[in-house]
Write a structure and sequence with these properties.
The complex is a heterodimer of chains A (297) and B (335). Chain A is mainly α. Chain A has 14 helices and no strands. Chain A folds into two domains: 44 residues, no CATH class; 208 residues, MetI-like fold (Orthogonal Bundle), CATH 1.10.3720. Helices cover 67% and strands 1% of the residues of chain B. The chains are: A mainly alpha (297), B mainly alpha (335).
Chain lengths: 297, 335
Protein backbone atom coordinates (compact mmCIF):
# COMPACT_ATOMS: atom_id res chain seq x y z
CA UNK A 1 0.00 0.00 0.00
CA UNK A 2 2.83 2.36 0.65
CA UNK A 3 4.53 1.38 -2.51
CA UNK A 4 7.21 4.02 -2.49
CA UNK A 5 8.72 2.53 0.64
CA UNK A 6 12.44 3.08 0.50
CA UNK A 7 14.77 1.93 3.19
CA UNK A 8 16.72 4.64 4.83
CA UNK A 9 20.30 3.92 5.55
CA UNK A 10 21.79 7.31 6.19
CA UNK A 11 25.12 6.08 7.47
CA UNK A 12 25.92 3.79 4.57
CA UNK A 13 25.30 6.19 1.73
CA UNK A 14 28.97 6.69 1.02
CA UNK A 15 29.97 3.34 -0.30
CA UNK A 16 33.69 3.94 -0.42
CA UNK A 17 35.33 2.59 2.69
CA UNK A 18 31.89 1.55 3.88
CA UNK A 19 32.79 -1.88 5.10
CA UNK A 20 35.30 -0.76 7.64
CA UNK A 21 32.81 1.69 9.05
CA UNK A 22 29.89 -0.69 8.82
CA UNK A 23 31.22 -3.70 10.64
CA UNK A 24 31.41 -2.26 14.18
CA UNK A 25 28.12 -0.49 13.58
CA UNK A 26 26.54 -3.75 12.56
CA UNK A 27 27.81 -5.51 15.66
CA UNK A 28 26.48 -2.74 17.89
CA UNK A 29 23.18 -2.89 16.06
CA UNK A 30 22.80 -6.60 16.66
CA UNK A 31 23.84 -6.32 20.30
CA UNK A 32 21.27 -3.59 20.83
CA UNK A 33 18.54 -5.54 19.05
CA UNK A 34 19.33 -8.71 20.95
CA UNK A 35 19.24 -6.88 24.27
CA UNK A 36 15.78 -5.57 23.48
CA UNK A 37 14.76 -9.01 22.32
CA UNK A 38 15.82 -10.49 25.65
CA UNK A 39 13.62 -8.05 27.57
CA UNK A 40 10.72 -8.65 25.19
CA UNK A 41 10.93 -12.41 25.35
CA UNK A 42 11.72 -12.80 29.04
CA UNK A 43 8.09 -13.03 30.26
CA UNK A 44 7.22 -15.51 27.52
CA UNK A 45 10.19 -17.75 28.24
CA UNK A 46 9.53 -17.37 31.95
CA UNK A 47 6.00 -18.67 31.58
CA UNK A 48 7.15 -21.60 29.45
CA UNK A 49 9.85 -22.57 31.95
CA UNK A 50 7.61 -21.92 34.94
CA UNK A 51 4.93 -24.23 33.67
CA UNK A 52 7.36 -27.14 34.18
CA UNK A 53 8.35 -26.12 37.70
CA UNK A 54 6.96 -27.03 41.06
CA UNK A 55 4.61 -24.33 42.39
CA UNK A 56 6.97 -23.39 45.25
CA UNK A 57 9.91 -22.94 42.85
CA UNK A 58 8.20 -20.62 40.41
CA UNK A 59 8.63 -17.29 42.11
CA UNK A 60 11.72 -17.83 44.19
CA UNK A 61 14.05 -19.38 41.67
CA UNK A 62 15.74 -17.29 39.03
CA UNK A 63 16.48 -20.25 36.78
CA UNK A 64 14.41 -19.96 33.66
CA UNK A 65 14.11 -23.71 33.29
CA UNK A 66 13.88 -26.20 36.15
CA UNK A 67 16.60 -28.81 36.72
CA UNK A 68 13.98 -31.52 37.09
CA UNK A 69 11.04 -30.57 34.89
CA UNK A 70 7.63 -31.86 35.91
CA UNK A 71 4.50 -32.18 33.80
CA UNK A 72 1.98 -32.40 36.62
CA UNK A 73 0.97 -28.77 36.07
CA UNK A 74 -0.40 -29.81 32.71
CA UNK A 75 -1.89 -33.13 33.74
CA UNK A 76 -3.66 -31.27 36.54
CA UNK A 77 -5.37 -29.14 33.89
CA UNK A 78 -7.20 -32.16 32.50
CA UNK A 79 -9.21 -32.18 35.72
CA UNK A 80 -10.68 -28.87 34.58
CA UNK A 81 -11.54 -25.80 36.60
CA UNK A 82 -14.45 -25.89 39.03
CA UNK A 83 -15.61 -29.18 37.52
CA UNK A 84 -15.70 -27.72 34.04
CA UNK A 85 -13.41 -29.17 31.44
CA UNK A 86 -10.83 -26.83 29.92
CA UNK A 87 -12.10 -27.81 26.50
CA UNK A 88 -15.45 -26.19 27.32
CA UNK A 89 -13.74 -22.85 27.81
CA UNK A 90 -11.80 -23.32 24.60
CA UNK A 91 -14.91 -24.21 22.67
CA UNK A 92 -16.72 -21.16 24.06
CA UNK A 93 -13.86 -18.86 23.15
CA UNK A 94 -13.60 -20.42 19.72
CA UNK A 95 -17.33 -19.98 19.09
CA UNK A 96 -17.15 -16.33 20.07
CA UNK A 97 -13.96 -15.65 18.14
CA UNK A 98 -15.12 -17.30 14.91
CA UNK A 99 -18.57 -15.71 15.22
CA UNK A 100 -16.88 -12.34 15.62
CA UNK A 101 -14.67 -12.90 12.60
CA UNK A 102 -17.63 -13.65 10.32
CA UNK A 103 -19.55 -10.66 11.64
CA UNK A 104 -16.67 -8.25 11.17
CA UNK A 105 -15.83 -9.49 7.68
CA UNK A 106 -19.39 -9.13 6.42
CA UNK A 107 -20.55 -5.97 8.12
CA UNK A 108 -17.34 -3.96 7.94
CA UNK A 109 -16.64 -4.78 4.31
CA UNK A 110 -20.17 -3.70 3.30
CA UNK A 111 -19.73 -0.42 5.14
CA UNK A 112 -16.25 0.09 3.76
CA UNK A 113 -17.51 -0.54 0.23
CA UNK A 114 -20.20 2.11 0.64
CA UNK A 115 -17.66 4.65 1.87
CA UNK A 116 -15.05 3.78 -0.74
CA UNK A 117 -17.06 3.12 -3.89
CA UNK A 118 -20.55 4.61 -3.70
CA UNK A 119 -21.32 8.31 -3.92
CA UNK A 120 -24.41 8.88 -1.87
CA UNK A 121 -25.89 11.88 -0.14
CA UNK A 122 -24.73 12.24 3.45
CA UNK A 123 -21.66 10.08 3.02
CA UNK A 124 -19.28 12.63 4.47
CA UNK A 125 -21.46 13.13 7.53
CA UNK A 126 -21.66 9.39 8.17
CA UNK A 127 -17.93 9.10 7.67
CA UNK A 128 -17.29 11.79 10.28
CA UNK A 129 -19.60 9.98 12.69
CA UNK A 130 -17.73 6.73 12.09
CA UNK A 131 -14.36 8.34 12.79
CA UNK A 132 -15.92 9.83 15.91
CA UNK A 133 -16.79 6.36 17.18
CA UNK A 134 -13.16 5.39 16.66
CA UNK A 135 -12.18 7.90 19.32
CA UNK A 136 -15.15 7.32 21.63
CA UNK A 137 -14.23 5.60 24.91
CA UNK A 138 -16.06 2.29 25.03
CA UNK A 139 -16.93 2.78 28.68
CA UNK A 140 -19.50 5.43 27.87
CA UNK A 141 -21.51 2.73 26.11
CA UNK A 142 -20.83 0.02 28.65
CA UNK A 143 -23.66 0.71 31.07
CA UNK A 144 -26.44 1.66 28.66
CA UNK A 145 -25.59 -1.31 26.43
CA UNK A 146 -25.71 -3.55 29.46
CA UNK A 147 -29.09 -2.12 30.43
CA UNK A 148 -30.33 -2.59 26.86
CA UNK A 149 -29.25 -6.22 26.64
CA UNK A 150 -30.56 -6.88 30.12
CA UNK A 151 -33.98 -5.53 29.19
CA UNK A 152 -33.91 -7.78 26.14
CA UNK A 153 -33.08 -10.69 28.48
CA UNK A 154 -29.86 -11.44 26.71
CA UNK A 155 -27.59 -11.53 29.73
CA UNK A 156 -25.63 -14.76 29.93
CA UNK A 157 -25.95 -15.31 26.20
CA UNK A 158 -23.38 -14.58 23.52
CA UNK A 159 -25.63 -12.10 21.71
CA UNK A 160 -24.33 -8.98 23.51
CA UNK A 161 -20.80 -10.02 22.60
CA UNK A 162 -21.53 -10.95 18.98
CA UNK A 163 -24.24 -8.53 17.83
CA UNK A 164 -21.96 -5.46 17.78
CA UNK A 165 -19.61 -7.33 15.43
CA UNK A 166 -22.44 -7.89 12.95
CA UNK A 167 -23.39 -4.21 13.03
CA UNK A 168 -19.97 -2.90 12.00
CA UNK A 169 -19.36 -1.07 15.28
CA UNK A 170 -15.61 -1.69 15.01
CA UNK A 171 -14.69 1.42 13.07
CA UNK A 172 -11.04 0.42 12.94
CA UNK A 173 -11.76 -2.45 10.54
CA UNK A 174 -14.13 -0.37 8.41
CA UNK A 175 -11.33 2.12 8.11
CA UNK A 176 -8.71 -0.49 7.30
CA UNK A 177 -10.81 -2.06 4.54
CA UNK A 178 -11.89 1.30 3.20
CA UNK A 179 -8.28 2.44 2.81
CA UNK A 180 -7.60 -0.71 0.85
CA UNK A 181 -10.67 -0.44 -1.38
CA UNK A 182 -9.98 3.17 -2.24
CA UNK A 183 -6.70 2.18 -3.78
CA UNK A 184 -8.16 -0.37 -6.15
CA UNK A 185 -8.29 0.99 -9.69
CA UNK A 186 -11.59 2.65 -10.46
CA UNK A 187 -11.48 1.37 -14.02
CA UNK A 188 -12.47 -2.04 -12.71
CA UNK A 189 -15.79 -0.74 -11.47
CA UNK A 190 -16.42 1.25 -14.59
CA UNK A 191 -15.79 -1.72 -16.83
CA UNK A 192 -18.06 -3.90 -14.72
CA UNK A 193 -20.67 -1.20 -14.70
CA UNK A 194 -20.67 -1.00 -18.50
CA UNK A 195 -21.27 -4.72 -18.50
CA UNK A 196 -24.35 -4.05 -16.43
CA UNK A 197 -23.09 -5.09 -13.00
CA UNK A 198 -24.75 -3.54 -9.98
CA UNK A 199 -22.96 -2.63 -6.76
CA UNK A 200 -23.67 -5.98 -5.17
CA UNK A 201 -21.98 -7.81 -8.05
CA UNK A 202 -19.03 -5.42 -8.06
CA UNK A 203 -18.67 -5.76 -4.28
CA UNK A 204 -18.87 -9.53 -4.30
CA UNK A 205 -17.03 -10.48 -7.49
CA UNK A 206 -14.49 -7.71 -7.91
CA UNK A 207 -13.77 -5.74 -4.77
CA UNK A 208 -13.91 -8.46 -2.12
CA UNK A 209 -11.52 -10.87 -3.89
CA UNK A 210 -9.06 -8.04 -4.44
CA UNK A 211 -9.28 -7.02 -0.78
CA UNK A 212 -8.10 -10.35 0.54
CA UNK A 213 -5.06 -8.96 2.38
CA UNK A 214 -7.21 -6.43 4.24
CA UNK A 215 -9.82 -9.08 5.00
CA UNK A 216 -7.21 -11.50 6.33
CA UNK A 217 -5.66 -8.80 8.52
CA UNK A 218 -9.08 -7.87 9.91
CA UNK A 219 -9.98 -11.49 10.50
CA UNK A 220 -6.83 -12.23 12.47
CA UNK A 221 -7.03 -9.08 14.55
CA UNK A 222 -10.69 -9.80 15.29
CA UNK A 223 -9.94 -13.35 16.32
CA UNK A 224 -7.15 -12.28 18.64
CA UNK A 225 -9.15 -9.42 20.14
CA UNK A 226 -12.13 -11.68 20.76
CA UNK A 227 -9.89 -14.34 22.26
CA UNK A 228 -8.22 -11.84 24.59
CA UNK A 229 -11.39 -9.95 25.45
CA UNK A 230 -11.95 -9.91 29.17
CA UNK A 231 -14.29 -7.07 30.04
CA UNK A 232 -17.14 -8.10 27.70
CA UNK A 233 -17.39 -11.69 28.96
CA UNK A 234 -16.84 -10.50 32.54
CA UNK A 235 -19.92 -8.33 32.36
CA UNK A 236 -22.24 -10.41 30.23
CA UNK A 237 -21.53 -14.01 31.22
CA UNK A 238 -22.29 -15.30 34.68
CA UNK A 239 -22.49 -19.08 34.42
CA UNK A 240 -19.10 -20.80 34.45
CA UNK A 241 -20.04 -23.26 31.72
CA UNK A 242 -20.43 -20.33 29.34
CA UNK A 243 -17.13 -18.74 30.34
CA UNK A 244 -14.40 -18.01 27.83
CA UNK A 245 -10.79 -19.03 28.36
CA UNK A 246 -10.00 -15.57 29.79
CA UNK A 247 -12.78 -15.80 32.35
CA UNK A 248 -11.97 -19.41 33.15
CA UNK A 249 -8.38 -18.42 33.80
CA UNK A 250 -9.43 -15.58 36.07
CA UNK A 251 -11.75 -17.94 37.93
CA UNK A 252 -8.87 -20.40 38.31
CA UNK A 253 -6.68 -17.67 39.79
CA UNK A 254 -9.38 -16.57 42.22
CA UNK A 255 -10.14 -20.10 43.37
CA UNK A 256 -6.74 -21.71 43.64
CA UNK A 257 -4.38 -18.76 43.62
CA UNK A 258 -1.00 -19.36 45.16
CA UNK A 259 -1.81 -22.90 46.22
CA UNK A 260 -1.59 -24.08 42.64
CA UNK A 261 0.80 -21.61 41.10
CA UNK A 262 2.12 -24.15 38.64
CA UNK A 263 -1.30 -24.97 37.29
CA UNK A 264 -2.08 -21.30 36.93
CA UNK A 265 1.08 -20.68 34.92
CA UNK A 266 0.47 -23.73 32.74
CA UNK A 267 -3.10 -22.63 32.08
CA UNK A 268 -1.90 -19.11 31.24
CA UNK A 269 0.42 -20.54 28.61
CA UNK A 270 -2.24 -22.83 27.16
CA UNK A 271 -4.62 -19.86 26.92
CA UNK A 272 -1.97 -17.92 24.99
CA UNK A 273 -1.23 -20.66 22.48
CA UNK A 274 -3.89 -19.84 19.88
CA UNK A 275 -2.80 -16.21 19.78
CA UNK A 276 0.86 -17.15 19.53
CA UNK A 277 0.07 -19.62 16.76
CA UNK A 278 -1.85 -16.98 14.81
CA UNK A 279 0.98 -14.58 15.27
CA UNK A 280 3.59 -17.03 13.99
CA UNK A 281 1.47 -17.96 11.01
CA UNK A 282 0.30 -14.50 9.97
CA UNK A 283 2.73 -11.99 11.42
CA UNK A 284 3.29 -10.41 8.01
CA UNK A 285 -0.40 -9.56 7.60
CA UNK A 286 -0.64 -8.26 11.13
CA UNK A 287 2.36 -5.99 10.88
CA UNK A 288 1.41 -4.66 7.45
CA UNK A 289 -2.14 -4.05 8.64
CA UNK A 290 -0.90 -2.22 11.69
CA UNK A 291 1.52 -0.14 9.64
CA UNK A 292 -1.24 0.94 7.26
CA UNK A 293 -3.51 2.08 10.04
CA UNK A 294 -1.23 5.02 10.74
CA UNK A 295 -0.68 6.06 7.16
CA UNK A 296 -2.86 7.10 4.36
CA UNK A 297 -3.20 4.20 2.03
CA UNK B 1 6.78 20.50 3.26
CA UNK B 2 6.15 23.77 4.96
CA UNK B 3 2.46 23.88 4.30
CA UNK B 4 0.26 22.48 6.98
CA UNK B 5 -3.01 20.78 6.38
CA UNK B 6 -5.27 20.38 9.35
CA UNK B 7 -5.96 16.72 8.96
CA UNK B 8 -4.40 13.81 10.72
CA UNK B 9 -3.25 11.29 8.15
CA UNK B 10 -5.75 8.71 9.19
CA UNK B 11 -8.50 11.24 9.59
CA UNK B 12 -8.04 12.53 6.11
CA UNK B 13 -11.28 10.96 5.16
CA UNK B 14 -12.92 11.14 1.84
CA UNK B 15 -12.01 14.63 0.77
CA UNK B 16 -9.54 13.41 -1.78
CA UNK B 17 -11.69 10.73 -3.28
CA UNK B 18 -10.89 10.44 -6.89
CA UNK B 19 -14.53 9.73 -7.59
CA UNK B 20 -15.75 6.59 -9.21
CA UNK B 21 -18.60 8.41 -10.86
CA UNK B 22 -18.35 10.39 -14.04
CA UNK B 23 -18.23 14.08 -13.22
CA UNK B 24 -21.70 15.38 -12.70
CA UNK B 25 -21.07 18.93 -13.85
CA UNK B 26 -20.76 18.94 -17.61
CA UNK B 27 -23.09 16.02 -18.29
CA UNK B 28 -25.85 17.46 -16.18
CA UNK B 29 -27.32 19.75 -18.82
CA UNK B 30 -27.71 17.03 -21.43
CA UNK B 31 -29.39 14.25 -19.48
CA UNK B 32 -30.63 15.56 -16.16
CA UNK B 33 -33.43 13.01 -15.69
CA UNK B 34 -31.24 9.97 -16.20
CA UNK B 35 -28.63 11.37 -13.87
CA UNK B 36 -31.14 12.12 -11.22
CA UNK B 37 -32.38 8.58 -11.42
CA UNK B 38 -28.85 7.33 -11.21
CA UNK B 39 -28.16 9.56 -8.20
CA UNK B 40 -31.19 8.19 -6.46
CA UNK B 41 -30.08 4.67 -7.20
CA UNK B 42 -26.63 5.43 -5.81
CA UNK B 43 -28.20 6.85 -2.66
CA UNK B 44 -30.29 3.75 -2.23
CA UNK B 45 -27.32 1.45 -2.78
CA UNK B 46 -25.23 3.50 -0.37
CA UNK B 47 -27.75 3.29 2.42
CA UNK B 48 -28.41 -0.39 1.82
CA UNK B 49 -24.71 -1.18 2.09
CA UNK B 50 -24.46 1.03 5.14
CA UNK B 51 -27.55 -0.39 6.83
CA UNK B 52 -25.75 -2.69 9.30
CA UNK B 53 -23.54 0.17 10.37
CA UNK B 54 -26.45 2.59 10.60
CA UNK B 55 -28.43 0.12 12.70
CA UNK B 56 -25.41 -0.43 14.92
CA UNK B 57 -24.76 3.26 15.24
CA UNK B 58 -28.32 4.04 16.29
CA UNK B 59 -28.86 0.99 18.51
CA UNK B 60 -25.43 0.51 20.06
CA UNK B 61 -23.76 3.92 19.95
CA UNK B 62 -26.05 6.94 19.61
CA UNK B 63 -28.97 5.51 21.56
CA UNK B 64 -26.81 4.28 24.44
CA UNK B 65 -25.00 7.61 24.58
CA UNK B 66 -28.26 9.46 25.04
CA UNK B 67 -29.42 6.89 27.59
CA UNK B 68 -26.13 7.17 29.44
CA UNK B 69 -26.44 10.94 29.59
CA UNK B 70 -29.91 10.53 31.08
CA UNK B 71 -28.77 7.88 33.60
CA UNK B 72 -26.01 10.24 34.71
CA UNK B 73 -28.67 12.47 36.26
CA UNK B 74 -30.59 9.65 37.91
CA UNK B 75 -30.35 7.20 40.74
CA UNK B 76 -30.58 3.85 39.01
CA UNK B 77 -29.89 0.41 40.47
CA UNK B 78 -31.19 -1.71 37.55
CA UNK B 79 -34.17 -2.97 39.53
CA UNK B 80 -36.19 0.16 40.20
CA UNK B 81 -36.95 2.75 37.56
CA UNK B 82 -34.33 5.50 37.25
CA UNK B 83 -35.11 8.41 39.58
CA UNK B 84 -34.10 11.94 38.52
CA UNK B 85 -31.69 13.44 41.05
CA UNK B 86 -30.19 16.29 39.07
CA UNK B 87 -26.50 16.86 39.66
CA UNK B 88 -26.25 14.69 42.79
CA UNK B 89 -24.17 12.01 41.07
CA UNK B 90 -21.65 14.59 39.99
CA UNK B 91 -21.36 16.23 43.37
CA UNK B 92 -21.02 12.84 45.05
CA UNK B 93 -18.38 11.83 42.51
CA UNK B 94 -16.27 14.96 42.90
CA UNK B 95 -16.40 14.71 46.69
CA UNK B 96 -15.53 11.02 46.78
CA UNK B 97 -11.88 10.53 47.87
CA UNK B 98 -11.81 7.14 46.18
CA UNK B 99 -12.88 8.73 42.87
CA UNK B 100 -10.21 11.41 43.27
CA UNK B 101 -7.71 8.67 43.93
CA UNK B 102 -8.75 6.81 40.77
CA UNK B 103 -8.33 10.01 38.74
CA UNK B 104 -4.84 10.51 40.17
CA UNK B 105 -3.83 6.90 39.49
CA UNK B 106 -5.13 7.06 35.92
CA UNK B 107 -3.51 10.41 35.14
CA UNK B 108 -0.25 9.18 36.56
CA UNK B 109 -0.46 6.05 34.45
CA UNK B 110 -1.22 8.06 31.29
CA UNK B 111 1.38 10.75 31.91
CA UNK B 112 4.20 8.33 32.74
CA UNK B 113 3.27 5.34 30.61
CA UNK B 114 2.35 6.91 27.27
CA UNK B 115 5.51 9.01 26.73
CA UNK B 116 7.73 6.13 27.84
CA UNK B 117 5.99 3.75 25.49
CA UNK B 118 6.21 6.15 22.56
CA UNK B 119 9.84 6.95 23.28
CA UNK B 120 10.64 3.25 23.32
CA UNK B 121 8.67 2.78 20.11
CA UNK B 122 10.42 5.64 18.33
CA UNK B 123 13.85 4.70 19.61
CA UNK B 124 13.58 1.09 18.54
CA UNK B 125 12.00 2.11 15.22
CA UNK B 126 15.02 4.32 14.51
CA UNK B 127 17.28 1.41 15.31
CA UNK B 128 15.34 -0.99 13.10
CA UNK B 129 15.01 1.52 10.27
CA UNK B 130 18.64 0.86 9.42
CA UNK B 131 17.94 -2.09 7.21
CA UNK B 132 20.27 -4.83 8.24
CA UNK B 133 20.05 -8.54 8.23
CA UNK B 134 17.43 -9.80 10.64
CA UNK B 135 15.40 -6.61 10.58
CA UNK B 136 12.15 -8.39 9.71
CA UNK B 137 12.71 -10.92 12.46
CA UNK B 138 13.29 -8.29 15.14
CA UNK B 139 10.33 -6.27 13.93
CA UNK B 140 8.04 -9.27 14.23
CA UNK B 141 9.42 -10.29 17.63
CA UNK B 142 9.08 -6.77 19.03
CA UNK B 143 5.54 -6.57 17.77
CA UNK B 144 4.41 -9.80 19.44
CA UNK B 145 3.80 -8.32 22.92
CA UNK B 146 1.22 -5.94 21.47
CA UNK B 147 -0.90 -8.93 20.54
CA UNK B 148 -0.63 -10.90 23.75
CA UNK B 149 -0.23 -8.00 26.19
CA UNK B 150 -3.96 -7.52 26.61
CA UNK B 151 -4.56 -11.12 27.64
CA UNK B 152 -5.36 -12.37 31.12
CA UNK B 153 -2.38 -14.73 30.82
CA UNK B 154 0.17 -11.95 30.48
CA UNK B 155 -1.43 -10.02 33.34
CA UNK B 156 -0.97 -13.11 35.51
CA UNK B 157 2.64 -13.48 34.39
CA UNK B 158 3.17 -9.81 35.12
CA UNK B 159 1.81 -10.13 38.60
CA UNK B 160 4.24 -12.98 39.20
CA UNK B 161 7.43 -11.43 37.85
CA UNK B 162 6.84 -8.19 39.74
CA UNK B 163 6.04 -9.86 43.05
CA UNK B 164 8.34 -10.20 46.07
CA UNK B 165 11.52 -12.15 45.45
CA UNK B 166 10.87 -12.61 41.71
CA UNK B 167 13.15 -11.38 38.96
CA UNK B 168 12.42 -7.66 39.22
CA UNK B 169 12.82 -7.64 42.99
CA UNK B 170 16.06 -9.64 42.78
CA UNK B 171 17.42 -7.34 40.11
CA UNK B 172 16.79 -4.23 42.15
CA UNK B 173 18.42 -5.89 45.14
CA UNK B 174 21.57 -6.24 43.06
CA UNK B 175 21.56 -2.46 42.97
CA UNK B 176 20.97 -2.24 46.68
CA UNK B 177 17.32 -1.30 46.40
CA UNK B 178 15.42 -3.19 49.06
CA UNK B 179 11.96 -1.95 48.20
CA UNK B 180 10.39 -5.36 47.64
CA UNK B 181 8.16 -6.54 44.83
CA UNK B 182 6.05 -3.94 43.08
CA UNK B 183 2.75 -5.77 43.08
CA UNK B 184 2.52 -5.86 46.85
CA UNK B 185 3.17 -2.16 47.25
CA UNK B 186 0.21 0.20 46.76
CA UNK B 187 2.47 2.97 45.50
CA UNK B 188 4.61 0.83 43.23
CA UNK B 189 2.06 -1.50 41.67
CA UNK B 190 0.98 1.12 39.14
CA UNK B 191 4.52 1.09 37.73
CA UNK B 192 4.19 -2.59 36.97
CA UNK B 193 1.26 -1.55 34.74
CA UNK B 194 3.42 1.17 33.21
CA UNK B 195 6.03 -1.49 32.50
CA UNK B 196 3.34 -3.65 30.93
CA UNK B 197 2.26 -0.93 28.53
CA UNK B 198 5.85 -0.01 27.66
CA UNK B 199 6.50 -3.69 26.97
CA UNK B 200 3.86 -3.39 24.25
CA UNK B 201 5.73 -0.67 22.34
CA UNK B 202 5.66 -2.82 19.20
CA UNK B 203 2.39 -1.53 17.76
CA UNK B 204 3.36 2.15 17.67
CA UNK B 205 6.86 1.07 16.62
CA UNK B 206 5.50 -0.59 13.49
CA UNK B 207 3.63 2.61 12.63
CA UNK B 208 6.77 4.69 13.22
CA UNK B 209 8.74 2.32 10.99
CA UNK B 210 6.24 2.71 8.17
CA UNK B 211 6.53 6.47 8.56
CA UNK B 212 10.33 6.39 8.59
CA UNK B 213 10.37 4.39 5.38
CA UNK B 214 8.59 7.19 3.59
CA UNK B 215 11.22 9.79 4.40
CA UNK B 216 13.05 10.39 1.11
CA UNK B 217 16.62 9.20 1.36
CA UNK B 218 17.97 12.06 -0.73
CA UNK B 219 17.19 14.45 2.09
CA UNK B 220 19.64 12.68 4.37
CA UNK B 221 22.27 12.57 1.68
CA UNK B 222 21.88 16.27 0.98
CA UNK B 223 22.08 17.03 4.68
CA UNK B 224 25.15 14.88 5.09
CA UNK B 225 26.84 16.73 2.25
CA UNK B 226 25.99 19.94 4.07
CA UNK B 227 27.76 18.54 7.11
CA UNK B 228 24.74 18.05 9.33
CA UNK B 229 25.41 15.64 12.17
CA UNK B 230 23.21 12.73 13.16
CA UNK B 231 21.32 14.72 15.77
CA UNK B 232 20.72 17.63 13.39
CA UNK B 233 19.48 15.26 10.72
CA UNK B 234 17.10 13.64 13.17
CA UNK B 235 15.81 16.94 14.49
CA UNK B 236 15.49 18.78 11.18
CA UNK B 237 14.56 16.00 8.76
CA UNK B 238 13.29 12.88 10.46
CA UNK B 239 11.18 14.44 13.17
CA UNK B 240 9.26 16.94 11.00
CA UNK B 241 8.67 14.33 8.31
CA UNK B 242 7.31 11.72 10.68
CA UNK B 243 5.34 14.22 12.76
CA UNK B 244 1.98 13.12 11.27
CA UNK B 245 2.71 9.56 12.35
CA UNK B 246 3.90 10.79 15.72
CA UNK B 247 0.67 12.73 16.12
CA UNK B 248 -1.39 9.66 15.23
CA UNK B 249 0.49 7.54 17.77
CA UNK B 250 0.26 10.15 20.53
CA UNK B 251 -3.48 10.54 19.94
CA UNK B 252 -4.32 6.86 19.88
CA UNK B 253 -2.02 5.80 22.70
CA UNK B 254 -3.21 8.57 24.98
CA UNK B 255 -6.88 7.82 24.39
CA UNK B 256 -6.14 4.15 24.85
CA UNK B 257 -4.28 4.65 28.13
CA UNK B 258 -7.20 6.45 29.71
CA UNK B 259 -9.26 3.31 29.21
CA UNK B 260 -6.95 0.75 30.80
CA UNK B 261 -9.01 -1.88 32.58
CA UNK B 262 -8.21 -5.58 32.24
CA UNK B 263 -4.57 -5.47 33.24
CA UNK B 264 -5.31 -3.23 36.24
CA UNK B 265 -8.15 -5.50 37.27
CA UNK B 266 -6.08 -8.68 37.04
CA UNK B 267 -2.64 -7.51 38.14
CA UNK B 268 -4.27 -5.72 41.05
CA UNK B 269 -6.98 -8.26 41.74
CA UNK B 270 -6.43 -10.53 44.69
CA UNK B 271 -8.13 -13.70 45.78
CA UNK B 272 -9.75 -11.78 48.61
CA UNK B 273 -12.20 -9.99 46.33
CA UNK B 274 -10.16 -6.82 46.41
CA UNK B 275 -10.92 -5.55 42.94
CA UNK B 276 -8.02 -3.30 42.13
CA UNK B 277 -4.80 -3.70 44.00
CA UNK B 278 -3.56 -3.42 47.56
CA UNK B 279 -4.99 -0.19 49.01
CA UNK B 280 -6.52 0.61 45.61
CA UNK B 281 -3.07 0.75 44.02
CA UNK B 282 -4.40 -0.07 40.55
CA UNK B 283 -7.83 1.45 41.04
CA UNK B 284 -7.77 3.18 37.68
CA UNK B 285 -10.77 5.13 36.50
CA UNK B 286 -12.51 2.33 34.62
CA UNK B 287 -11.93 -0.08 37.49
CA UNK B 288 -13.77 2.23 39.81
CA UNK B 289 -16.46 2.68 37.17
CA UNK B 290 -16.82 -1.10 37.06
CA UNK B 291 -16.95 -1.36 40.84
CA UNK B 292 -19.60 1.33 41.17
CA UNK B 293 -21.69 0.09 38.25
CA UNK B 294 -21.48 -3.65 38.41
CA UNK B 295 -20.49 -4.44 41.99
CA UNK B 296 -22.45 -1.72 43.77
CA UNK B 297 -25.26 -1.57 41.15
CA UNK B 298 -24.99 2.20 40.93
CA UNK B 299 -25.65 2.58 37.24
CA UNK B 300 -26.51 6.27 37.46
CA UNK B 301 -23.30 7.17 39.25
CA UNK B 302 -21.26 4.96 36.92
CA UNK B 303 -22.84 6.69 33.90
CA UNK B 304 -21.89 10.06 35.33
CA UNK B 305 -18.34 8.74 35.72
CA UNK B 306 -18.34 7.49 32.14
CA UNK B 307 -19.41 10.90 30.88
CA UNK B 308 -16.63 12.56 32.85
CA UNK B 309 -14.21 10.18 31.15
CA UNK B 310 -15.67 11.09 27.77
CA UNK B 311 -15.28 14.80 28.53
CA UNK B 312 -11.68 14.27 29.63
CA UNK B 313 -10.81 12.25 26.53
CA UNK B 314 -12.58 14.76 24.28
CA UNK B 315 -10.63 17.61 25.89
CA UNK B 316 -7.32 15.83 25.44
CA UNK B 317 -8.21 15.06 21.82
CA UNK B 318 -9.20 18.68 21.19
CA UNK B 319 -5.98 19.98 22.72
CA UNK B 320 -3.93 17.55 20.63
CA UNK B 321 -5.71 18.54 17.42
CA UNK B 322 -5.28 22.20 18.28
CA UNK B 323 -1.61 21.73 19.06
CA UNK B 324 -0.83 19.89 15.84
CA UNK B 325 -0.86 23.16 13.91
CA UNK B 326 2.32 24.01 15.75
CA UNK B 327 4.25 20.83 15.37
CA UNK B 328 2.75 18.52 12.78
CA UNK B 329 3.88 19.01 9.20
CA UNK B 330 1.88 17.58 6.38
CA UNK B 331 3.55 17.33 3.04
CA UNK B 332 1.94 19.38 0.36
CA UNK B 333 0.14 17.16 -2.10
CA UNK B 334 0.84 14.11 0.00
CA UNK B 335 -1.21 11.20 -1.05
Amino acid sequence: MNAQATDITPATSTRAGGLRRRLPGSVAWHIGSLAILAVILYPVIWVIGGSFKRSEDIIGSLDLFPGDPITSNYTRLTEGIADISISTFFLNSLTLALGSVIGILVSCSLTAYAFARIRFAGRNLLFTLMIGTLLLPYHVLLIPQYVLFRNMEMINTYTPLLLPKYLATEAFFVFLMMQFMRNLPKELDEAARLDGCGHLRIYWSIVLPLCRPALITSAIFTFINAWNDFMGPLIYLNEPDKYTVSLGLKMFVDQEGLANYGGMIAMSLVALLPVLAFFLAFQRYLIDGMATSGLKG
Amino acid sequence: MGTTVTHAPAMEGLSKDKGSEPRHGPVKSSRPAALKRRGRRENLAGYLFMSPWIAGFLLLTAGPMVASLYFAFTDYNLFDAPRWIGLDNFSEMFGDPRWQHSVRVTLWYVVVGTPLKLLAALGVALLLAQSRRGQAFYRAAFYAPSLIGASVSIAIVWKAIFSDDAIVDRTQKLFGLNVGGWTGDPDMIIYSLVALTVWQFGAPMVIFLAGLKQVPRELYEAAEVDGAGKLRRFWNITLPLISPVLFFNVLLETIHSFQIFSSAYIVGGGAGGNACGPADGTMVYTCYLYVQGFENSRMGLASAMAWMLLVAVALVTAVLFWSQKRWVHYEEGAR
